[in-house]
């Protein structure tokens, strides 16, 4: 392993540690001597890496350092590229642009071996879906409400075109092969529901945040729905 690769690997290892780790453990994991490790730590610290160390306790990488994905191997590269291409196929315009931007940034920092995996991957996404129904409400409205934890008032029509008005707590957007859905707590049903976005004719924030943490509500929803590994969703039929 080259010296540059060793330094980057050391940073990656430290980044994955939530607690201080001893020099002996780090040296063993990197298969180098402790003397080399001390020298590498000193060099990284001199370059500005926020590494904190204390005798008898170990080293920890403090927050504040962003590590670009320089050390991806061929399999990791292909996994990321496959995921981003799925996003490009199934996401909306915002996510499609984000996926293209992320791929360009990754391509700019990959080493030559990983560049080859990027240009000629051994795995490819399947054909695009059949297209999504047109949405009356832009997905950005839902996306922003989710980020703000804002209650949404929606006009919804079920599979039988029966209209209803709902006050929901939007938790996440789901991108299926043929439809897009929003996962939410529905105040009308006093239960978690999923709503097809193409069946929502209007949506407006109520100027009120819903209680609790979105992450906790999502965790409860996952447990309640007992999602299988494929993460299937059932659009609301009530």
UniProtKB/TrEMBL annotation:
Molecular function GO terms recorded: DNA binding
Q: Where is the Helix-turn-helix type domain?
A: 6-59
Q: Which Gene3D superfamilies does this entry report, sorted A to Z?
A: Winged helix-like DNA-binding domain superfamily/Winged helix DNA-binding domain
Where does the source fall among the domains of life?
Answer: Bacteria
* InterPro entries on file: CBASS_pafABC_assoc_protein, HTH_11, WH-like_DNA-bd_sf, WH_DNA-bd_sf, WYL_dom
| Presence of the UniProt keyword Cell inner membrane in the record | no
* Stretches assigned to the WYL domain: 139-203
**Keyword Chaperone in annotation:** no
Keyword annotations from UniProtKB, A to Z: DNA-binding
Q: Which residues form a coiled coil?
A: none
Q: Which Pfam families match?
A: HTH_11 (PF08279), WYL (PF13280)
Q: What is this protein called?
A: Predicted DNA-binding transcriptional regulator YafY, contains an HTH and WYL domains
């Amino acid at each position: 392993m080259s010296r540059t690769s060793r330094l980057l690997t050391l940073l990656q290892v430290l980044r994955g540690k939530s607690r201080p780790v001893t020099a002996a453990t780090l040296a063993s994991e990197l298969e180098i001597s402790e003397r080399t490790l001390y020298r590498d730590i000193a060099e990284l610290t001199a370059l500005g890496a926020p590494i904190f160390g204390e005798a008898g306790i170990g080293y920890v990488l403090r927050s504040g350092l962003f590590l670009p994905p320089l050390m991806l191997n061929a399999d990791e590269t292909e996994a990321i590229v496959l995921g981003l291409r799925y996003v490009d196929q199934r996401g909306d315009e915002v996510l499609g642009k984000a996926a293209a931007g992320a791929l360009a940034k990754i391509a700019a920092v990959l080493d030559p071996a990983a560049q080859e995996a990027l240009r000629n991957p051994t795995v490819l996404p399947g054909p695009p879906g059949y297209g999504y129904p047109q949405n009356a409400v832009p997905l950005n409205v839902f996306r922003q409400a989710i980020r703000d934890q804002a209650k949404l008032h929606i006009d919804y029509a079920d599979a039988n075109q029966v209209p209803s008005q709902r006050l929901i707590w939007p938790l996440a957007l789901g991108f299926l092969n043929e439809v897009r859905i929003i996962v939410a707590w529905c105040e009308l049903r006093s239960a978690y529901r999923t709503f097809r976005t193409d069946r929502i004719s209007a949506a407006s924030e109520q100027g009120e945040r819903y209680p609790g943490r979105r992450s906790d509500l999502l965790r409860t929803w996952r447990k309640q729905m007992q999602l299988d590994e494929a993460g299937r969703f059932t659009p609301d039929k009530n």
